[in-house]
Amino acid sequence: LTVMNMLIGVICEVVSSVAVAEKELATATFVRDKMRALFDEFGALDDDEISRDEFLVVLQNPKAIQVLTEAGLDVEALVDQAEALFVSEQIDGKGERTVNFTEFVEMVLSMRNSCTATVKDVIALRKFTRTVISQTSDQLARIESHLEREAGSRRGIE
Question: What is the annotated signal peptide range for this record (predicted)?
C-alpha cells in the first residue's frame, strides 16, 4: 500500500511537470504566432529583423497589447525596456539596431511577470551595463578631444 501511494505521488508529479511544460510551450507558440501576424500586418518583418521603432509602433496596436497581456506580459514595462531589448550589434540599412524575430520572442517571453530573475539574468544585466558604460566613455572621449581641438584653434586665433 505504501509503495502504491509513492508511485501515485510520483505519477502525479510527472503529470504536473508535463502540464507546466506543455502550458509554457503553448504560451510561447501563441505569442510567436500572434506577434508574427501583427508584425506582418505592419510590414515590419520583411527581413525577419525587428527594429526598436517597429516594435514601438506595433505596441500601440490594441491587438498587440491584448496578446501580450494574455501571455502575462506588462506592456508598459516592455515599452520602458525597449532600449534594453534592442542592444544588438546588428544594424539595419537605416542605421537602427535590430533583433532577429526568434530572439525577440524569447526576450519578450523572458520578461513575463511569472518569470523570476536568475543568475543568467544578472550576468546579462552586468554585460548590458558594461556595454552602455563603454559606449558612454567612448562618446565622452570623442567630445573631450573635440573640445580640446576647438579650444586649441581658438587660442591660435587670439
Answer: 1-21
